[in-house]
Amino acid sequence: MIGCGNMGGAMLRRWVASGVLAGDQVDVVNRADRALPDGVRQSRDLPGGDLPDAVILAMKPQQIDDVASRFAARLAGVPILVSILAGVEDSALAARFDAQTIVRAMPNLPVAIGKGVVALESSSRDDAVRADVVALMAPLGLVEWVDPAQFDAVTALAGSGPAFLYRFIDALAAAGVANGLPAAQAERLALATVEGSALLAAAAEIAPGVLAEHVASPGGSTRRGLDVLDDRDALKVLLTETIAASTRRNAEMAAAARG
Questions:
Q1: At what angle are helices 183-203 and 161-178 packed, to 10 degrees?
Q2: How does pLDDT run across 16-65, given as a tens digit for each residue?
Q3: If we measure between CA atoms, which residue out of 65, 76, 70, 74 comes closest to residue 99?
Q4: Are the CB atoms for 2 and 56 separated by under 8 Å?
Q5: Cα dist. 89→4, 63, 78, 144 in Å?
Q6: Do the beta carbons of residue 254 and residue 86 sit within 8 Å?
Q7: Backbone angles phi and psi of 128, in degrees to 5
Q8: How far apart, in whole angstroms, are the C-alpha atoms of residue 10 and residue 111?
Q9: How far is residue 216's CA from residue 57's CA, in Å, rounded to a whole number?
Q10: Each residue of 245-254: pLDDT tens digit?
């Protein structure tokens, strides 16, 4: 694994905790030592010896040229290259790294507890390789292959989505404070409400929008609040604009990486 920041570290810790990888099967190349699972080796350079079974690029996207200049020649022919670099397309990776198979992956932060999302895309149609990648990612949460043309939108929805949801939780708590609740209590109530509601929605056989209607009695207080969110599709419009802005930024980073 090249780079092991917040996301890479979350993935690595979950892999080791789930048993899909043992710590001593992993080498991390980092600019500075981090707290990593027992047995994981870390250094500033690639380990010697044979090529690894897979390389995971988990540094910042802006570091791709530096990493390629340092390591691409020594990694030539690696069986699988997995990149979690937002906005860096297959073609940009292939131009810098000679790998037998390149897979783009977009995880989100809840992979740390095995409740994340990992979107995958690859030009490879090798079923065995694709199955191996899915097996590696499975302990992290929901794993789905997506169309390359939709990868930026999936990145915005699932990859950036936790940040948007955290903002919503914060705003929900702030709204409680504005209506007289103590701040600490409002935060606890907001967190528990979102956690329980998400678990119920995940287990339900009906869509979340239908669940909302089940909570709202005609003429009741919930309905009155939904009227605000539904007025001129205010919430949908806000989130559509949010996802669109994030998607555009992914496309801008992809254009920069091509250059």
A1: 130
A2: 999 999 999 999 999 999 999 999 999 999 998 899 999 999 999 999 99
A3: 76
A4: yes
A5: 20, 14, 18, 17
A6: no
A7: -65, -45
A8: 7
A9: 46
A10: 999 998 898 8
CA separation for the pair 8, 12 (Å, rounded): 6
**Cα–Cα distance, 119 to 139 (Å, whole number):** 14
H/E stretch holding 104: strand 99-107
Tokens standing for residue 214? 């089940």
How does pLDDT run across 76-109, given as a tens digit for each residue? 999 999 999 988 999 999 999 999 999 999 999 9
Q: Is the Cα torsion angle 187, 106, 29, 17 positive or negative in sign? A: positive
CA angle 218–209–181, rounded 5-degree value: 70
Taking the C-alpha atoms of residue 12 and residue 21, their distance in angstroms, rounded to an integer, is 9
Give yes or no for a contact between 88 and 59, defined as CB atoms under 8 angstroms apart.
no
Tokens of 8: 């890479």
pLDDT tens digits, one per residue of 168-177: 999 999 999 9
Q: Is 80 exposed, middle or buried (0-12, 13-18, 19+ CB in 10 A)?
A: buried
With the CA atoms of 199, 205, 206 and 212 taken in that order, what torsion angle do they form, in degrees rounded to the nearest 10? Answer: -30
- Indicate the pTM of the whole model: 0.89
Please give the pLDDT value at position 256.
86
The pLDDT, as a whole number, for residue 157 is 95
* Total H helices, total E strands in the chain: 10, 7
